[in-house]
Amino acid sequence: MSGKREQRSPLVDVRGLKKHFPVRKGLLSRVVGQVKAVDGLDFTVGHGETLSLVGESGCGKTTAGRSLLRLIEPTAGQALYRATPEAEPVDLFGLDGARLRELRRDLQIIFQDPYASLNPRVTVGNAIAEPLRVHGLANRGELEDRVASLLTRVGLRPDVANRFPHEFSGGQRQRVGIARALALRPKLIVCDEAVSALDVSIQAQIINLLKDLQEEYGLSYVFIAHDLSVVKYISDRVAVMYLGRIVETGSADQIFDAPQHPYTRALLSAIPHADPRRRAERVPLSGEIPSPISPPAGCHFHTRCPLAEDRCRSTWPSAAEVAPGHTVSCHPVADAVQGANSTTGS
Predict the structure, then answer these.
(1) Which residues contact 294 (CB under 8 A, 6 or more apart)?
(2) What is the pTM of this model?
(3) Which of 76, 106, 140, 316 could bond to 187 as cystine, CB 3.0-4.6 Å?
(4) How confident is the model over 153-204, as pLDDT tens digits?
(5) CATH class of the domain at 10-24+33-243
(6) Distances (CA, A) of 7 to 1, 4, 48, 50, 325
(7) How far apart are CA 1 and CA 156, in angstroms?
(8) Beta bridge partners of 14
(9) Can you give the residue ranges of every domain in the chain?
């Protein structure tokens, strides 16, 4: 299983990422508030690594992925990008014009809905060829061969290039989306719920394809998903998000075998098991998710947390390392780890 790989040098180092959407009201559309969809994320993605962002719907996973690629403009933060481990870092959020367009070749996305992401009036061959034309990477004579090669690599016949999206199944359309993302030979691909709209058997095929492509091309993935069984299979590291912030980060083994944050434990307890005789102990959460327009002070999770203390209601807990590479933002958990370390003398 992934999660056992060695530490990778960072491809992207994200610091303090924020994305706030204005709330407008009245005839004059005055700004009366901000939806804090992403409210200060720090994470890294290594060369050839898969980092998964997980959490409940509305926690900011997709916004974080699209902000990283500048598909929506971030409100604040840095994204330091190194094309090679030896290269000087470049802040993706500080680029514009020709330099940003040049780097877009390295940064691609696979969307959740494979049908909505394809133009119904354009053949799949033209959809795959378009990025090659835009970046001038192939002349007219080469395009057909490049498209055929990409279609073959994702498991489709080259002769389907002249078909339109409605002539394909959902899994085949997602393979087209993957081929389009691969066309420019990127270094990082954001997989935004890339398999959630597919049947389970097709999900397995697409996940295996993504893993094979990662090994072949040295790709890095930011894998956004809510299906934790898929996340466990594909991930090297996992970052758990709650209401726009990361509450726990670690390797896939650390998160799934030794979760520390109470929210992570609740998420994992909800994973269904194929064996009906296996009775997993559920960790129920009371209350509703607070509004991102007015998130609670302190730890955002304290309104639903069984471990909440007075300080949780006023102070956001800084990330504490509970094991090498495993960090948790939780006051009670950090105290318990410090107490255990002092007892053992470590």
Answers:
(1) 33
(2) 0.91
(3) 106
(4) 999 999 999 999 999 999 999 999 999 999 999 999 999 999 888 888 889 9
(5) alpha beta
(6) 15, 9, 10, 12, 9
(7) 28
(8) 43, 79
(9) 10-24+33-243, 268-346
10 Å Cβ neighbour count for 16? 13
Per-residue pLDDT at 280: 66
> Which residues of the chain are under the pLDDT cut of 50?
1-5
At 113, give phi and psi (nearest 5°).
Answer: -100, 105
Strand boundaries in 47-151, DSSP class E: 50-54, 76-81, 90-91, 107-110
* Segments of 121-276 assigned E as strands: 188-192, 220-224, 237-242, 245-251
Phi, psi of 257 (to 5 degrees): -95, -25
Residue with tokens 């002249």: 162
291 Cβ contact partners less than 8 Å away, ≥ 6 residues apart: none
1-42 pLDDT tens trace: 444 445 678 999 999 999 999 999 988 889 999 999 999 999
The type of residue at 228 is: L
- pLDDT value, residue 342: 63
Side chain identity, residue 276 = P
Dig out the tokens for 120 from the structure.
Answer: 């119904």
